[in-house]
Amino acid sequence: MTAALPSLTLALLCLLWAGAQVPVQPDLDTEKFAGVWHVTAIASNCSIFLKMKDGMKSSMAIISFMPEGDLAMKLVWPLMDKCQKFELLFQQSGQAGHYMGAQEKRDLRVMETDYSYYAILHEAHPSEGEPSAALQLLTREQDVSPQLLQKFMELIPTMGLTKDMLAILPKSGE
């Protein structure tokens, strides 16, 4: 047990350092950011995501903000026979664009957005079993330009992820 303690401490320090290195959109304008987004690409080291990524389609995320500044996200994922719906609530961390999961330990950061076409989100889930991270490309339309996709792909290794963890999600008619 004592031999594992230095490794665990080092792993936690790496997670804290990685989280500190994730940039946040300066002065995020929540009114402009709120609304409907399409999840068009994801890179993640989550084992569940990696097993499912080849069968996934573009999903919708509806983002709204509570009066106290918390971020509410409704996700609709098209599956084979139905749509799966999730509702997530993230509490404001004190820094605009940085939110913490209300139900479970999740760290969500709006890294970059132009509000009208794209947003890049970083989510970390430092669970005890298997810490995971995800980089998501959101667009207002289901189409994504090759230039934006290239920019997103260049960010992947800077967040400690690899290109084999990437899923470019095909359009969904659902």
From TrEMBL:
Q: Which InterPro entries does its entry note?
A: Calycin, Lipocalin, Lipocalin_CS, Lipocln_cytosolic_FA-bd_dom
The record's Pfam families line, in alphabetical order, gives: Lipocalin
MF GO annotations: small molecule binding
Origin: domain of life: Eukaryota
Q: What residue range is the signal peptide? A: 1-20
Gene3D superfamilies per the record?
Answer: 2.40.128.20
Q: Which UniProt keywords apply?
A: Signal
Q: Where is the Lipocalin/cytosolic fatty-acid binding domain?
A: 34-171
Q: PANTHER family from the entry?
A: LIPOCALIN, LIPOCALIN-LIKE 1 PROTEIN
**Family to which this protein belongs:** Belongs to the calycin superfamily. Lipocalin family.
Question: What protein name does the entry list?
Answer: LCN15 protein
Which species is the source of this protein?
A: Aegithalos caudatus (Long-tailed tit)
Biological classification of the source: Eukaryota, Metazoa, Chordata, Craniata, Vertebrata
* Gene designation per UniProt: Lcn15
